[in-house]
């Protein structure tokens, strides 16, 4: 038999498993049979002595071997010629007179194979084998096949239908023939007029005048039967001749039938005739071919909506690539916004049953993406995009192609439901690498350009405007995710932050200068006010400057509260700044040293916060070290403070009663003083003068304090601090990126949300800087990293800042170096692939010569 392997051409291991397969079948040992299949035995392989009967075909022609047939159909080996295979397989199963074998073959095949090959061969194969001896078995099989929904109107190459073969069968006596003819005539939609010029009706009326004949079928039903039978040339001819007799609804039904049956030639003719392919209808009104009530509704068989389905949806659900391509070419085709969200689960469902069927759906998926008529970032009722579903089902190939087509990673119901949260970091990194391309010049040339695309960080509106606005939400998710945090150093991410920072960095620096001016003025006023030598002029100047600084702080805090009230109230720093404003006002009007001390402390905190917020690696690293060590110390010390309070009480109780009257800080006679003294001793200032160490118990208590508190706990806290600082130093650059991201996120949330409000009230002279950035950037790494595609919308602020910098925008050095490294790695990988392909080609040529 062609298209199947020869058992003599395989390796010894494979041959051993093949022999085991044959022996297991001969002995009817299903367990050894399945084991041989697991070891790689091919049930489609034939021996040199019997070219037609592989193990599967032998099982199909042997009654009671349905388990062996099922095992063979579920193995990984598939036939290359499906038509030849199923024609022979159905014939063997029909000849066995075992209905269970045919049922097993049917159930083990995927939907498209059932629809096509069983429709073509099953009934015809059964009726041709009918005789008086096997009629009971064959008739049972015929009823089973009809209950599957297999059409009884499909002719063979001779235009003979199954009923036609029954009528002319001379191996059946008259009573049995009449019984079977009656069974066929009782079927709905039986067609005895379409084929062979209506010859079958003439024969039936002549032989069985007493039987009730079905009414002559309509033109549309005849056309449907042509589609089911696959007689497309005759369908085209008949459809063209009767076009004036077919109404719009019937055209639409024929269109659906041609899509489901994959009758491509018929589809083209129907579309060219002017059918309304956008029509929506209920499946109850769509008379798609169905033989029995048990065959299932259109909605159940093809998994389409029960109401308001269109031809486009049927093409998608049935995986008909050709029909989908033709429909997408229609200029006015209507497509559901959530097509991709509905299509992806369907693909995943079908991959379980057939790889070939999944490939059809994959081709349809690519057609949808390439058509340009589908918005891959549309949001369904659950606030999810197609990328959400692809990530949910963990299909890397779907995720890659969606990201490549520009699927957004910053669209979701909330920050915690962005696609980024469940996206594998390695997969995202590979895609970000693909977002970096070059102009393919030599790496050393001055005109060599690197292009970085930000297509996955924009929304549909931003894409149409070709501007990048709200992009920092997914980046903030990376900041919070330990798995994705390292991607902040990727050139795509760092370039976004760099471009945004170039746009708005002046705001932060101006705020820093104004705040520094205020801090300097108020400190100068406090110092001059308490100086023994009065400097009237200097004091007045510092007072005026302090008032100006306080006014600036008031305006800044009010603006922050107006633009983001909830976020403002959640920040502890804002409350300290409010206290600073209050104390500064009081200091200007009252001479109180406590107020001035508190004000100076708050000023120091404000200055520390301002300096630490600057995205400079060295500064942000030290600020982060301070915060991290403080939090770490507070968490640990909160737990270990149990020891501190314990020893405080012990020292207080054991203190010398005679010294109670002395209030020196060196005494333990007062509980509060004892607590302060214990803290001082904890940091190493040991003073046992006030402890009575004459008794052994007091000595043991003091040694316990030294051991647990001064030695163990103090060194433990130091060790934690060293560990934290070392970890922070190791990622100093990453810390700077995180700091910059946090700064920009705050500005983005305020600026984007209230941009119109700000421009209307506070930007009469176009003073607010433009925050948007191009959706891609091109720069030259060999020409001082100059950005050549980055265009800034003109504004007074941008012109002024450009005048101050007096230079073209550039990409930062770290981003440029990493982008070059990625391009070199990709280039080396491509060169390796090309070398391997050339080597394989040479080896093939050498093997052909030998």
From TrEMBL:
Ranges occupied by ANK repeats: 382-414
GO MF terms held by the record: monoatomic ion channel activity
A Pfam family hit: Ank_2
Membrane topology label: Multi-pass membrane protein
Swiss-Prot/TrEMBL keywords: ANK repeat, Ion channel, Ion transport, Membrane, Receptor, Repeat, Sensory transduction, Transmembrane, Transmembrane helix, Transport
Record-annotated membrane-spanning stretches: 507-528, 540-566, 572-590, 597-616, 632-653, 665-683, 695-717
Compartments, record wording: Membrane
Cell division is among the record's keywords: no
GO cellular component: cation channel complex
SMART domains recorded: ANK
SUPFAM superfamilies, sorted: Ankyrin repeat
InterPro entries xrefs: Ankyrin_rpt (IPR002110), Ankyrin_rpt-contain_sf (IPR036770), Ion_trans_dom (IPR005821), TRP_cation_channel (IPR052076)
Domain Ion transport, chain residue ranges per copy: 509-732
Domain of life of the organism encoding this protein: Eukaryota
Protein name: Transient receptor potential cation channel protein painless
Organism of derivation: Lucilia cuprina
């Amino acid at each position: 038999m062609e298209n199947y392997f020869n058992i003599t051409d395989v390796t010894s291991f494979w041959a051993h498993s093949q022999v085991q397969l044959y022996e297991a079948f001969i002995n009817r040992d299903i367990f050894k049979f399945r084991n041989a299949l697991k070891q790689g035995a091919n049930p489609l392989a034939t021996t040199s002595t019997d070219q037609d009967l592989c193990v599967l075909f032998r099982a199909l022609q042997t009654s009671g071997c349905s388990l062996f047939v099922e095992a063979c159909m579920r193995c990984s080996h598939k036939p290359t010629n499906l038509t030849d295979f199923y024609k022979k397989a159905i014939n063997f199963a029909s000849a066995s007179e075992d209905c269970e074998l045919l049922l097993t073959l049917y159930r083990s095949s995927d939907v498209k194979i059932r629809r096509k090959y069983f429709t073509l061969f099953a009934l015809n194969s059964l009726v041709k084998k009918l005789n008086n001896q096997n009629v009971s078995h064959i008739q049972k099989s015929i009823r089973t096949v009809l209950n599957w929904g297999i059409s009884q109107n499909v002719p063979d190459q001779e235009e003979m239908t199954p009923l036609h073969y029954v009528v002319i069968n001379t191996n059946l006596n008259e009573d049995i023939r009449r019984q079977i003819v009656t069974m066929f005539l009782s079927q709905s939609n039986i067609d005895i007029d379409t084929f062979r010029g209506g010859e079958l009706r003439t024969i039936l009326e002549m032989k069985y005048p007493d039987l009730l004949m079905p009414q002559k079928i309509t033109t549309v039903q005849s056309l449907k039967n042509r589609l089911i039978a696959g007689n497309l040339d005759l369908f085209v001819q008949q459809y063209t001749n009767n076009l004036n007799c077919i109404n719009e609804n019937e055209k639409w039904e024929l269109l659906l039938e041609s899509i489901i049956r994959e009758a491509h030639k018929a589809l083209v003719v129907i579309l060219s005739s002017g059918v309304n392919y956008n029509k929506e209808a209920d499946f109850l009104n769509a008379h798609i071919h169905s033989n029995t009530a048990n065959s299932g509704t259109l909605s159940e068989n093809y998994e389409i909506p029960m109401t308001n389905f269109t031809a486009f949806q049927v093409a998608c659900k049935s995986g008909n690539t050709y029909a989908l391509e033709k429909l997408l070419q229609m200029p006015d085709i209507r497509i559901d916004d959530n097509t991709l969200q509905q299509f992806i689960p369907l693909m995943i469902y079908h991959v379980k049953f057939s790889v070939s069927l999944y490939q059809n759906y994959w081709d349809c998926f690519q057609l949808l993406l390439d058509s340009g008529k589908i918005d891959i970032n549309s949001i369904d009722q659950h606030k999810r995009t197609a990328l959400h579903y692809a990530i949910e089902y963990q299909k890397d190939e779907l995720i890659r192609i969606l990201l490549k087509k520009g699927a957004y990673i910053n669209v979701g119901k909330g920050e915690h439901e962005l696609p980024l949260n469940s996206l594998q970091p390695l997969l995202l990194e590979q895609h970000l690498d693909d977002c970096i391309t070059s102009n393919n010049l030599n790496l050393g040339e001055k005109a060599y350009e690197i292009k970085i695309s930000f297509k996955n960080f924009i929304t549909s509106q931003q894409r149409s405007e070709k501007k990048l606005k709200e992009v920092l939400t997914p980046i903030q998710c990376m900041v919070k995710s330990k798995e994705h945090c390292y991607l902040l150093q990727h050139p795509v991410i760092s370039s976004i932050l760099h471009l945004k920072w170039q746009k708005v960095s002046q705001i932060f620096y101006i705020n820093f200068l104004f705040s520094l001016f205020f801090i300097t003025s108020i400190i100068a006023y406090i110092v001059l006010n308490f100086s023994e030598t009065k400097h009237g002029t200097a004091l007045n100047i510092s007072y005026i400057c302090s008032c100006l600084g306080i006014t600036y702080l008031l305006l800044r805090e009010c603006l922050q509260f107006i633009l983001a009230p909830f976020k403002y109230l959640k920040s502890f720093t804002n409350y300290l700044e409010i206290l600073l404003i209050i104390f500064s006002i009081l200091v200007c009007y009252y001479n109180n040293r406590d107020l001035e001390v508190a004000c100076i402390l708050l000023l120091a905190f404000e200055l520390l916060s301002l300096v630490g917020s600057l995205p400079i690696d060295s500064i942000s690293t030290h600020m982060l070290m301070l915060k991290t060590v403080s939090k770490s110390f507070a968490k640990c010390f909160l737990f270990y403070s149990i020891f501190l309070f314990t020893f405080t009480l012990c020292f207080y109780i054991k203190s010398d009663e005679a010294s109670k009257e002395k209030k020196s800080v060196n005494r333990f006679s007062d509980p509060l003083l004892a607590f302060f003294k214990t803290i001082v001793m904890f940091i190493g200032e040991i003073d046992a003068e006030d402890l009575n160490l004459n008794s052994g118990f007091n000595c043991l208590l003091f040694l316990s304090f030294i051991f647990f508190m001064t030695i163990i706990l103090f060194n433990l806290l130091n060790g934690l601090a060293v560990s934290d600082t070392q970890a922070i130093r190791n990622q100093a650059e990453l810390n700077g990126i995180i700091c910059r991201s946090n700064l920009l996120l705050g500005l983005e949330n305020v600026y984007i949300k209230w941009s119109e409000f700000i421009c209307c009230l506070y930007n009469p002279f176009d003073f607010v800087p433009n925050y948007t950035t191009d959706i891609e950037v091109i720069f030259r790494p060999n020409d001082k990293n100059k950005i050549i595609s980055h265009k800034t919308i003109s504004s007074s602020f941008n012109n002024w800042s450009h005048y101050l910098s007096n230079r073209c925008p550039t990409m930062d050095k770290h981003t440029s170096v990493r982008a070059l490294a990625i391009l070199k790695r990709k280039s080396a990988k491509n060169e390796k692939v090309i070398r391997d392909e050339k080597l394989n080609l040479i080896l093939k040529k050498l093997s052909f010569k030998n």
